[in-house]
Amino acid sequence: MRHLLSISDLSKVEALQILNTAEELARVSDGPMKKLPTLRGRTIVNLFAEDSTRTRISFEAAAKRLSADVINFSAKGSSVSKGESLKDTAQTLQAMGADAVIIRHSASGAAQRLADSQWMTGSVVNAGDGTHEHPSQALLDAFTIRRHLAHGGDDLTGLHVAIVGDVLHSRVARSNVLLLTKLGAQVTLVAPPTLLPVGVESWPVKVSYDFDSIIESVDAVMMLRIQMERMTELFFPNAREYSRYFGLNKDRLKKMKPTAIVMHPGPMNRGLEITADSADSARSVILEQVTNGVSVRMAILYLLLAGSQEIGASE
C-alpha cells in the first residue's frame, strides 16, 4: 500500500489488514508502553487546508505514538492563504523531507492529484477531500462496529447499518457505503430526497425516506451532521421539521434493538440531527469512535511506512 486515497482502492483483504493491525496496535497502546519506536526518524506532515479538530489531532497523536516527527501545516496563516498553489506547497514539503502527507482539502480529488503528481515522493493519506471521501473515518467506524457487533467475526456480514441525514454533502457517508458493503454489511441510507445525491440508486444500498420504518431492524445508526456551511439553498423547511422526521431522539432510541449502537462522525449539531440524551446514552459509541480513530490511523501510517516491521519490535 503506497497511499490511502479512497476506500475503492482497497480490497477486502487490505481493509481487514488495516482493521486487524489497528486491533493489535490498540492492545499495545493499552499496555505499559504507550509509544512505539516504529517510525522514529520519519517525518509526517498534516496538511490541512480545511478546518479540523478531531481528524488532525487524531493523526498527530497516531504519528507521535509511533515516534514520528510531525509538522502541522494549516492553510490559515500560511502561504496557501496568500495564493500558493498545491504544487508549490507539495514541493516545499518534499524539500523538507516529508515521508507522508496527510491532506484535507476543500477540492474533491486534491489528495489524488497530489499522489499522482511528480511533486513529491512520499505517501499521501486522504483526510477528507471536498464532498468526495474520508477513508480513515470509514475505517475507524467499521473498526468500532466490528468491536461491538461482529461477535468475533472478521467482517461485518449480517449486520444492518443505517446512515441517516445529509448524505448529499457527506464524504463520510460515501466512504462508509463503500467500506461497510465491502465488508458484508447491509446499508440503508435515510434522508429526505433533497439530501440524497444524484445517482444514489446505483449505490449498493437501500434508500428510505422513513426513519421510523427501519429503526427497529438496524444494528447501528450512524447520524450525519447537517453541513450548513456547504448549503447554498434550502434543503428542508426548518430545523424543527428536519429533527421531527430525521433526527435521533429518545423515542426512536427506545425502538432500537437492545444491542444496537449510536454513532456520529462529529462534530454534532445537538438538537438538530441528534438530541443530547441520544448522544450521551449508554448506546452511544461516539467518544469511542474518537479513541478508535487513533489506533486505526496508527495502523494506516504503520502499513504505509513500516509495514514489514513487527509491531512492538524495538530498533
From TrEMBL:
Broad enzyme group: transferase
Annotated residues for binding of L-aspartate: 82, 171, 225
Enzyme Commission number: 2.1.3.2
One Pfam family, short name: OTCace_N
Domain of life: Bacteria
Biochemical pathway: Pyrimidine metabolism; UMP biosynthesis via de novo pathway; (S)-dihydroorotate from bicarbonate: step 2/3
Annotated residues for binding of carbamoyl phosphate: 54-55, 104, 134, 137, 266-267
Keywords: Pyrimidine biosynthesis, Transferase
Keyword Transferase: yes
Record-level Gene Ontology MF annotations: amino acid binding; aspartate carbamoyltransferase activity
A GO-annotated cellular component: cytosol
Residues of the Aspartate/ornithine carbamoyltransferase carbamoyl-P binding domain: 2-146
Hydrolase as UniProt keyword: no
HAMAP family associated with the record: Asp_carb_tr (MF_00001)
Protein family (similarity comment): Belongs to the aspartate/ornithine carbamoyltransferase superfamily. ATCase family.
Entries under PANTHER family matching the protein: ASPARTATE CARBAMOYLTRANSFERASE, ORNITHINE CARBAMOYLTRANSFERASE, MITOCHONDRIAL
NCBIfam families: asp_carb_tr, PRK00856.1
Assembly notes: Heterododecamer (2C3:3R2) of six catalytic PyrB chains organized as two trimers (C3), and six regulatory PyrI chains organized as three dimers (R2).
Protein's recorded name: Aspartate carbamoyltransferase
Species name: Candidatus Planktophila sulfonica
